[in-house]
Each structure stands twice: as C-alpha cells, then as structure tokens.
UniProtKB/TrEMBL annotation:
<keyword id="KW-0411">Iron-sulfur</keyword>
<feature type="binding site">
    <location>
        <begin position="116"/>
        <end position="118"/>
    </location>
    <ligand>
        <name>iminosuccinate</name>
    </ligand>
</feature>
<dbReference type="Pfam" id="PF02445">
    <property type="entry name" value="NadA"/>
</dbReference>
<keyword id="KW-0963">Cytoplasm</keyword>
<comment type="function">
    <text>Catalyzes the condensation of iminoaspartate with dihydroxyacetone phosphate to form quinolinate.</text>
</comment>
<keyword id="KW-0004">4Fe-4S</keyword>
<dbReference type="InterPro" id="IPR003473">
    <property type="entry name" value="NadA"/>
</dbReference>
<keyword id="KW-0662">Pyridine nucleotide biosynthesis</keyword>
<dbReference type="InterPro" id="IPR023066">
    <property type="entry name" value="Quinolinate_synth_type2"/>
</dbReference>
<feature type="binding site">
    <location>
        <position position="218"/>
    </location>
    <ligand>
        <name>iminosuccinate</name>
    </ligand>
</feature>
<protein>
    <recommendedName>
        <fullName>Quinolinate synthase</fullName>
        <ecNumber>2.5.1.72</ecNumber>
    </recommendedName>
</protein>
<dbReference type="InterPro" id="IPR036094">
    <property type="entry name" value="NadA_sf"/>
</dbReference>
<feature type="binding site">
    <location>
        <position position="27"/>
    </location>
    <ligand>
        <name>iminosuccinate</name>
    </ligand>
</feature>
<comment type="pathway">
    <text>Cofactor biosynthesis; NAD(+) biosynthesis; quinolinate from iminoaspartate: step 1/1.</text>
</comment>
<feature type="binding site">
    <location>
        <position position="45"/>
    </location>
    <ligand>
        <name>iminosuccinate</name>
    </ligand>
</feature>
<feature type="binding site">
    <location>
        <position position="261"/>
    </location>
    <ligand>
        <name>[4Fe-4S] cluster</name>
    </ligand>
</feature>
<feature type="binding site">
    <location>
        <begin position="201"/>
        <end position="203"/>
    </location>
    <ligand>
        <name>iminosuccinate</name>
    </ligand>
</feature>
C-alpha cells in the first residue's frame, strides 16, 4: 500500500548509488522502506562497524546516527562518509565529553576505560577500547581486571557487571528510548499475551532486563527470532526493529509496544536521496583525534 509513496525516492536512490559508487549502511532501527528497499548492509552497531571495514565503494551513506557515521569514517579515512541529517544524534553520545573521561581516569588510576561505541570520536580517543552491546561481555572479560570504567551507559555497565562479576565504574548516561521501559510494563504484557517471549536490549534498566527471557543487542534479538524458538515475541527496544523482522518472519506474532528513537527517525528516504544528490552532509574527524579514536575501535574489532 505504501509503495506508491516511496517508489520515486527508491528509484532515484538506487540510480544515485550507481552513479556515485555509493553504498548505504543501515542500522536495525531504520524504517522498513530504508532497511529493505535501499540498503546494502544492515545490522547492529557491531556489524555496521565490521562491514564498514570491507566497503569498496567511494561513498558510504550512513542510515543511522552520527556516532555510527563517525565510526565508519574512522575505519575509512579516505572515503566520503555522508549522514543524511547531521542532527541525528544520540542521548548516550551527548551525555559525556572527553574532559569527563580524563577526570574519571584521573580518579581511578590504572583502571581500563571501555567506551560504548555510542560516543563521539573525541570520547573514543580518550579510551582504551570500545565495545558495542553485541560484544560488551567479551570485551570486559578480555581485560581480566576486577574493575572497569565502562561509560557512558549506566544500565549497560550494570547489566554487564551482573553477567561478568566485574566491578563497574560508570556514568549516568542513558538511552532515551530504552530507559522508558519498566518492569511493570513487561509483567502486564505477559498477562495480556500468554506465552510471549520477551527480548530486551541491554540498554534497558537492569530491573527490566531481569523481567525478560533474553537480553542482547539488536543483532542478537534478530538471531533469536530467526532461530524459530518463539511463536510470539515482544522486542523491548526501538519500534522499527519489529517492523523489519515482521517482514522477514511473517509466521511469528510480534507484540509491538515500543519506543521511538527521534534521532534514528530523522533519516528518511527523501533525506537519503538529498544526501546522494548533493553529496551532503559529509562527516569529518579532526586528524588529532582520529588516530587515537580509531585505535580504540580497532582494538575492539581485534577482540
Ligand atoms: P545495537 O544495534 O548495537 O544493539 O545498538 C542499539 C542502539 O541503540 C544503537 O543506537
Ligand atoms: Fe542513542 Fe538510544 Fe537512539 Fe540508539 S536508540 S541512537 S542509543 S538514543
């Protein structure tokens, strides 16, 4: 039904991608017409960072938020990286500055700093290594220390601290999408939809994760749904995730209470078309930050 509305932009984007030798990387929270109709690579933050390393095109368009475009640029310094809307930020990335990280390090000498990929390049540059929700446990365990400074997502740090037994020194950053879910909401869903399997993102508060059957990154949730272990699921995360998976798994019933990420929703087909038509807006990183930030991302990818 929506095809007539999208067709013109989709045709134009597919043509512009060929003309510009461009690829579109899209996060799992992008709307279905972007995720299924114009993207070349889709996935969670970890997959997008990994795949960004293998891109052969001249131009990368990030259908996601600014920190994702910055990560793609770090890994592809010689390519043009475009973000269709510069204002597509992230409440986690906005919660912390490079000076905050330096102060934390000074207050806890010798404790390694693991920075969530949802941060600016300037914050990454102050860190020992990065992590995503898909590899946070493995990254923390790889350090072999009793304590870790894990920033800026307080809830992710507490959830990983619980899983690993490592003492977390963290920061009061929260994802504005996931912090709004409550344990009561999950209990109500179970009553209203008996047998529903609850999958929660680890950016949710620990008391929400405790009510879920499974916690994992958006890619882990996607894999769980694809495994066919559940006939009825609810994804405690951003809305578009269920819309995208429902297309791929028509036999699975999706219960869809969800919260929208206003930053992800800034990326639209017309915005992507405009980015490719005008080759804007280009993401750049100051050279004095880029090498140190890249090292933190590359250490993560190596693990
Ligand atoms: P992942 O896709 O890495 O799980 O991240 C979720 C998210 O909120 C990204 O902004
Ligand atoms: Fe940031 Fe949360 Fe939006 Fe992801 S969903 S971009 S973590 S605000």
């Amino acid at each position: 039904m929506e095809w007539a509305l999208f067709e013109d932009d989709i045709e134009a984007i597919l043509r512009l991608k060929r003309e510009r030798n461009a690829v579109i990387l899209a996060h799992n929270y992008q709307t279905p017409e972007i995720f299924h109709c114009v993207s070349d690579i889709v996935g969670d933050s970890l997959a997008l960072a990994r795949e960004a390393q293998t891109v052969e095109a001249d131009v990368i368009v990030m259908a996601g938020v600014h920190f994702m475009a910055e990560t793609a640029k770090l890994l592809n310094p010689n390519k043009t990286v475009l973000i269709p809307d510069m204002a597509a930020g992230c409440s986690l990335a906005d919660s912390i500055t490079a000076a905050d990280v330096r102060a934390l390090r000074a207050a806890h000498p010798g404790v390694p700093v693991v920075t969530y990929v949802n941060t600016s390049a300037a914050v990454k540059a102050e860190s020992d290594l990065c992590c995503t929700s898909g590899n946070a446990k493995r990254i923390v365990e790889s350090l072999g220390t009793d304590s870790v400074i894990m920033i800026p997502d307080e809830f992710l740090a507490r959830n990983i601290g619980k899983e690993t037994g490592v003492r977390m020194i963290t920061w009061a950053g929260h994802c504005e999408v996931h912090e709004r879910f409550t344990p009561g909401e999950i209990r109500r869903m179970r009553q209203e939809h008996p047998g529903v399997v609850v999958l929660a993102h680890p950016e949710c508060p620990p008391e929400v994760v405790a009510e879920a059957d499974f916690a994992g990154s958006t890619a882990h949730m996607s894999d769980f749904v694809a495994s066919g272990k559940a006939e009825k699921v609810v994804l405690i995360t951003e809305c578009s995730m269920s819309d995208n998976l429902a297309v791929q798994h028509p036999k699975i019933e999706f219960i869809r209470p969800c919260n929208l990420c206003p930053h992800m929703k800034r990326i639209t087909l017309p915005a992507i078309r405009h980015a490719l038509e005008t080759m804007t807006t280009e993401v750049t990183i100051e050279p004095h930050l880029a090498d140190r930030a890249r090292a933190a991302v590359e250490r993560m990818l190596a693990i």
